[in-house]
Write a structure and sequence with these properties.
Family: Belongs to the TtcA family. CTU1/NCS6/ATPBD3 subfamily.
Keywords: Cytoplasm, RNA-binding, Transferase, tRNA processing, tRNA-binding
Protein name: Cytoplasmic tRNA 2-thiolation protein 1
CATH architecture of the largest domain: 3-Layer(aba) Sandwich
Subcellular location: Cytoplasm
Number of strands: 12
Pathway: tRNA modification; 5-methoxycarbonylmethyl-2-thiouridine-tRNA biosynthesis
Radius of gyration: 22 Å
Number of domains: 2
Strand order of the largest sheet: 5-4-3-6-8-7
Helix content: 40-55%
Largest sheet: 6 strands, mixed
CATH class of the largest domain: Alpha Beta
């Protein structure tokens, strides 16, 4: 039989198709795939009016594939479409030896490659604790709670130092779909509303006389981009990124949601975006969300960006693990060396390993609570925006500091007197002094 003619790109009809696009299984050549990917991000930015000319944007950079692709795409689109943006990189050093210190080296290279200023802010400087010290104190179980809460505040504080009012993060469609599924299973509609929003912000006018670090806008330009396509884009653009998993990442509830989403995607490629769109529609059911935009009104001033419940670290919570990334990279390398007439095969993620024989909790899911409209205020200790009198970070820090009686400032909040006692001050860095 004569050799089969190579399949042509579905868009240009000229070049040989090399990529089977995960989102819709269309067959594309490399230039067309890159163009389509960038054009879709541009459409997300313009249709949601994410930026305005002259705006200074801080890119939350971890060195991973999502934030690296985000920085590369924003630089490209900013020049191509003349957005008129000033782009800077903002990295948070959680203090994890063997992981974050290595990934920050990647971020430093990215800063030179993209010609963007880089600022690195550490947990130790802000809170008096590194994550290594936190894990040593509390163990690996539940440590991501500390890291997620600290990281969200750290990004806002870092942005305030830079005089930036807008931070962009690399959350992708897979992340949002996982969060929608998690909150749906928990029956938490208000949190689902926040997590589906492409923009979260808390203008000072809506939240009272708050400190400047609370008036930070957050957005997700990669919200509708598949994780697999982000990997393909990074691979074919030869981007420099870090793909090792956080050494403290657990297989928690999000891991189960991730596995379910990936299984659904294998059966129905559009499943990820279907879940995201369904989450947006359900968000409109939340009382007070009258907005007709895709965020279901969740981008209004009533949504506290500081309290988003999404993956915090860009690796463990909602991101592809290091082993899965290595599998993808090997798969892509094999595709390039494949026979002349073969198409690049769709990337697949290995099935997650079964967890140990852990018995489920007797009570199962948490009891459903009635939906309550949040009232934003100011943390009594550090001044950070919170729907509680004391923010999550201060509550966690108080517990850590109580375990280290030396070299710290006691943080005690008297509910009856409505004030902080025992020498605590209205400054996070002083109130959070920890070991050493």
């Amino acid at each position: 039989m004569p050799p089969k003619a190579p399949t042509l790109c579905a868009i240009c009809k000229t070049n040989r198709a090399l990529i089977l696009r995960p989102k819709d299984h269309s067959k594309l050549c490399k230039p067309c795939f890159i163009t389509v990917f960038e054009t879709e991000i541009h459409h997300t930015i313009t249709s949601n009016s994410l930026f305005h000319r002259g705006e200074k944007i801080a890119i939350g950079a971890s060195g991973g594939k999502d934030s690296t692709v985000l920085a590369s795409v924003l630089k490209t689109l900013n020049e191509r479409y003349d957005y008129g943006l000033e782009l800077v990189l903002l990295s948070i050093d959680e203090g994890i030896k063997g992981y974050r210190d290595d990934s920050l080296e990647t971020v430093k290279r990215n800063a030179k490659q993209y010609d963007m200023p880089l600022t690195i802010l550490g947990y130790e400087e802000l809170y008096g604790w590194t994550m290594d010290q936190v894990v040593e104190q509390v163990g690996k179980k539940g440590n991501c709670t500390y890291c997620g809460v600290f990281r969200r505040q750290a990004l806002d504080r870092g942005a305030a130092r830079l005089g930036v009012r807008h931070v962009v993060t690399g959350h992708n469609a897979d992340d949002v779909a996982e969060t929608v599924l998690m909150n749906l299973l928990r029956g938490d509609l208000p949190r689902l509303s926040r997590s589906t929003s492409i923009v979260t912000s808390t203008p000072a006018a809506a939240s009272g006389d708050l400190k400047s670090h609370t008036n930070i806008k957050r957005s997700k330009p990669l919200k509708y981009a598949y994780e697999k396509e982000i990997v393909l884009y990074a691979h074919h653009k030869n981007l420099d990124y870090f793909s090792t998993e956080c050494i403290y990442s657990p297989e928690a509830f999000r891991g189960s949601a991730r596995a379910l989403i990936k299984n659904l995607e294998r059966v129905r490629p559009s499943a990820i975006l279907d879940v995201v769109r369904s989450g947006e529609d359900m968000a409109k059911l939340v009382p007070g969300n009258d907005d007709d935009r895709s965020c279901g009104g969740a981008c209004s001033s009533n949504v506290p960006a500081a309290e988003e419940e999404e993956g915090g670290c860009g690796s463990a919570n909602g991101r592809t693990a290091g082993g899965e990334m290595a599998h993808m990279e090997r798969h892509l390398a094999q595709n390039e060396a494949a026979a002349e007439n073969e198409l690049e095969v769709e990337i697949t993620i290995p099935k997650p390993k079964k967890a140990g024989n852990k018995k489920p909790k007797a009570n199962g899911m948490a009891p459903q609570k009635p939906n309550k409209q949040q009232v934003l205020g100011q943390c009594k200790i550090c001044g950070y925006i919170s729907s509680q009198e004391v923010c999550k970070a201060c509550v966690l820090l108080e517990g850590l500091n109580k375990s280290q009686p030396k070299n710290r400032i006691e943080v005690v909040y008297d509910e009856k007197e409505n004030q902080v006692l025992d020498g605590a001050t209205n400054g996070m860095a002083k109130a959070a002094l920890g070991p050493g």
